[in-house]
Amino acid sequence: MTLPQYITINGTSYASDKLSAEAKSQAANILIVDAELARLQQQVAIAQTARNAYSAALIEAVKGRGEAATAEKPKKPRAPRKPKAAAEAK
After folding, report:
1. What is the phi/psi pair of residue 68, to 5°?
2. pTM for this one?
3. Closest to 1 in 3D by CA, of 42, 33, 49
4. What are the pLDDT tens digits along the chain (90 aa)?
5. Cα–Cα dist 66/81, whole Å
């Protein structure tokens, strides 16, 4: 792995060409790990976005706004009719 001209570790910059072979090796390892951490953070963001979408879909389904919402809701039953004799007596 080719190192950049300067490497910054914990806020301190080091010139790559002035590092020992061991320090260059460790710096390369840090760069590899940093790249892997960035990749994993991107994967976590993708997974979190998918989870949020699934959660939203679940909430919609539970509230009845999913596919079942397109079905016709049953009508409220009518009040019973008064008997004709009681209506005529008034």
Report:
1. -65, -20
2. 0.60
3. 33
4. 789 999 998 999 999 999 999 999 999 999 999 999 999 999 999 999 999 999 999 999 999 865 555 566 777 877 787 777 655 665
5. 37
